[in-house]
Amino acid sequence: MIVAGVMSGTSADGVDVALCRIMPSAKKNGTPRIKLIGAAGFRYPKPLRNAVLAVMDAKDASVADLSRLNWRLGEVYAGAVERAAQQFGIKVALVGCHGQTIYHQGAALKYLGRPIRCTWQLGEASVIAEKLRVPVVSDFRPADLAAGGQGAPLVPILDYVMFRSEKVNRVLQNLGGIANMTAIPAGASIDDLLAFDSGPSNMVIDACMERFYGKPFDRNGAIAKRGKVIQQVIHPFLKQPYFSALPPKSCGREEYGEKFVNHFISLCRKVGAKDADIIATATALSAESILDAYRRFVWPHLGQKAPMARGVEYVVAGGGAKNETLMTMLRSGLEPLGVRIRTTEELGIPTQAKEGVAFALMAWLTWNGLSGNVPSATGAPRPVILGKVTRG
Which residue range is the domain that position 173 belongs to? Predict the structure, then answer.
């Protein structure tokens, strides 16, 4: 079955489409077989990106605008799948669309007298199904939340299916708007996975770049490379409760959006930081929070679950994999621990395509009545079937 996986992340910079051929395992109780046919990325038009970011950071939002944006994103996702399918000359049979997250609250908070977990992704599936005339699986997170999980991270199911090794410990690191990691001990069962969001990756960097340089991201980490890291700003942030909280845990723009960025910039300015210094410091905050999470949670987990395994492979995906300054910071912290850093490119998946592949897999699982969450990652008490099916 040919499945298109569609992903637009917390950076809100555009749409990634992964076209996959997915087949059942040849072995009884085995994992599905996935072949990536092709991948394509499409940037949001600037007015659309501005509208998405405004909704994410708004204290109040017009119901009419939310409805219109939901419909417009459906059109954008349908167009992206159509263009990708034409580019690679294939016919898609199923679409898995994550949608654009505008709010995610993985931990329960009181609302109208009751503890509530909630999440909201925009991108009208009916529009996609009608335009493409194929079934669409969308809205993956709510089923896990309703079962008592955090609804994130969801990508660990792909990490397990595609990257598990019998002999080598692997850590799958995604560097999107948020940094999330999946630790897979050598020879692991799915219950042995440890996965969680460690904190911001590109989100704070991108916001500062937009503010100071009018650019959506720091290409190759060039501006961070020429700036000076202000350590006295980073250390107080790393003492915040989220970083020491035990997994499972998830975060997003609610924690590291405009309010956080304003506070971060203010602290940098107080110690005389220039624009490039702030970009360098935001990059170092991402790297040091990831390294702290690895030492604090991942290293002990791997040693406990697979103490005799042959080393650790640290496999990076996401837009941050192209930020050379961020990658250099990660290497300087991980390589002395005997960790080998690779990218998903070396294992057959372009760094920008991984999450698209993940949602193609989740759609296929849902279509076949199979669960798609990893309870040890989300905190859900049981596996559940994810998503809602809209027939074309």
Answer: 157-347
C-alpha–C-alpha distance, residues 71 and 68, integer Å: 5
Classify residue 338 by burial, with Cβ atoms within 10 Å: 0-12, 13-18, 19+.
Answer: exposed
Q: Where are the beta strands (DSSP E) in the chain?
A: 2-8, 14-23, 33-43, 94-111, 114-122, 136-138, 169-175, 178-184, 194-200, 312-317, 339-343, 388-390
Pair 84, 25 in one domain: yes
Measured CA to CA, the distance from residue 149 to residue 381 in angstroms comes to: 7
* Whether residue 212 is found in the same domain as residue 283: yes
Query: Do 188 and 282 belong together in one domain?
Result: yes
Per the CB < 8 A criterion, the answer to whether 127 and 71 are in contact is: yes
DSSP-assigned states of every residue in 227-254: S---HHHHHHHHTSHHHHSPSS----HH
Same domain, 318 and 191: yes
**Statement to judge: residues 11 and 125 lie in one domain:** yes
Q: What is the pLDDT of residue 29?
A: 77
Average pLDDT over residues 73-79: 98
375 and 341 assigned to the same domain: no
| Tens digit of each residue's pLDDT (9 = 90 or more) over 287-324 | 999 999 999 999 999 999 988 787 899 999 999 999 99
Please name the residue that has the structure tokens 């559940």. Answer: 384
User: Contact at 8 Å (CB) between 69 and 76?
Assistant: no
Do 201 and 339 reside in the same domain of the chain? yes
> Which CATH number belongs to the domain containing residue 88 in this structure?
3.30.420.40
Helix (H, G, I), strand (E, B) or coil at 60: coil
Whether 260 and 285 map to the same domain: the answer is: yes
Q: Is the pTM of this model over 0.90?
A: yes
pLDDT (tens digit per residue) in 10-64: 888 899 999 999 999 888 878 999 999 999 999 999 999 999 989 987 777 899 9
Mean pLDDT, the chain, rounded, equals: 95
The number of folded domains in the chain is: 2
